[in-house]
Amino acid sequence: MIINSLLDTDLYKLTMMQGVLHQFPWAEVEYEFNCRDDSIDLSPVVDTVAAEIDHLCTLRFTPEELNYLGDLRFLKKDFIQFLRLFHLQRDYIHVKSEDGKFKLGIKGPWLHTILFEVPVLAIVNEVYFSNIVPHPNFDTGRGKLFDKIALVKAANAENLGFSFSDFGTRRRFSRAWQEHIIAVLKKALPRNFIGTSNVYFARKFDLTPIGTMAHEWIMAAQALGPRLVDSQKFALEHWAQEYRGDLGIALSDTVGFEAFLSDFDMYFAKLFDGCRHDSGDPFHWGDRLIAHYRRLKVSPQIKRAIFSDGLSFDKAIELARYFNGRIQTAFGIGTNLTNDITEKPVQIVIKMIRCQGAPVAKISDTPGKQMCKDAEYLSYLKSVFKRKVAAGGLP
């Protein structure tokens, strides 16, 4: 089977899950699968995906895995005890073919559904590619990997301090291919390869597990907070309360970067270690972030800019070169690292669409990454934050 450990997920799912346990254990949510490429037909793999999900829902954390998680300083004892009892419930996830289209939805308590996203996306991706590419050319894949390693080694001569992590679990070609890549990178680039978002492989290869929050944390606050206009500050404040200085990278594009900066005042700028870019032009984003820190009298040289939006190694190194000496940088590379064997990777996502029965949305700074099922709510959300930005950040 494809997934054989509940650790085979991204760290930010576990860190958000702990926050949900402590602060929103009563919250009910709904997620929806979306393939951004309409030409891709996933309906032939529905039954295989369903069988893989059946298996996923039989898994539990092992004592050894729980001991590993317990050694991560930011995970608390009561959360580890909760995980001893936890397993994914099959009743909360539905996959079917409807009118010739692949349909997948998740609905239930946030605490009990949050861990579905990453392994389910990995399942869909691997099943799809095993179906259309039954005999992949791994020699070509290895050649591409060594070309990337050569790029990084050449960049080291520039003293850029270039560092990157594997962020490729959700859209990997296969679990075995991701494992091979991580093993090669750890040996070939010990100065540059600083970790992986995949907790299972971080444990197996003695790497740092990388991650903080995802869009759903800020999206859910649109329904959980006291006022929509304050939802982003509500999410950041509750994150800070949960981790007290750990995991201090703020995600900046859930309702657009302009709206983020209007909320990211001196308090948050000093409280968080830095910000993560996930949509829009990364060069413009970094320039704006540096200018924002300077305007707040915060030195950007002590802050971090994390880039994670569809990066190639060429682009990541170009960004490192551009921002060298101006702000600390690090890079999360996903699909380009773990699924470039094929010419056309599949752009699939699972995003929260409702919380507490109310619609929630991700606006993003790249139109194609916007996600909301309720056009009226999306329009209202945009207008609320547009007015706030126009008023200089005032509610």
UniProtKB/TrEMBL annotation:
Q: Which Gene3D superfamilies match?
A: nicotinate phosphoribosyltransferase
The record's gene field reads pncB
What is this enzyme's catalytic activity, as reactions?
5-phospho-alpha-D-ribose 1-diphosphate + nicotinate + ATP + H2O = nicotinate beta-D-ribonucleotide + ADP + phosphate + diphosphate
Record's NCBIfam families?
A: NAPRTase (TIGR01514), PRK05321.1 (NF003704)
Record organism? Desulfococcus multivorans DSM 2059
Is Glycosyltransferase set as a keyword in this record?
yes
User: What PANTHER family does the record tag this protein with?
Assistant: NICOTINATE PHOSPHORIBOSYLTRANSFERASE (PTHR11098)
Q: Which residues cross the membrane?
A: none
Q: What keywords would UniProt list here?
A: Glycosyltransferase, Ligase, Phosphoprotein, Pyridine nucleotide biosynthesis, Transferase
Q: Which SUPFAM superfamilies match?
A: Nicotinate/Quinolinate PRTase C-terminal domain-like (SSF51690), Nicotinate/Quinolinate PRTase N-terminal domain-like (SSF54675)
Q: Which family does it belong to?
A: Belongs to the NAPRTase family.
Q: Which InterPro entries match?
A: N/Namide_PRibTrfase, NAPRTase_N, Nic_PRibTrfase, Nic_PRibTrfase-Fam, Nicotinate_pribotase-like_C
**GO process terms (BP):** NAD+ biosynthetic process via the salvage pathway
Query: Protein name, please?
Result: Nicotinate phosphoribosyltransferase
Q: Where is the Nicotinate/nicotinamide phosphoribosyltransferase domain?
A: 162-387
One GO cellular component term of this record is: cytosol
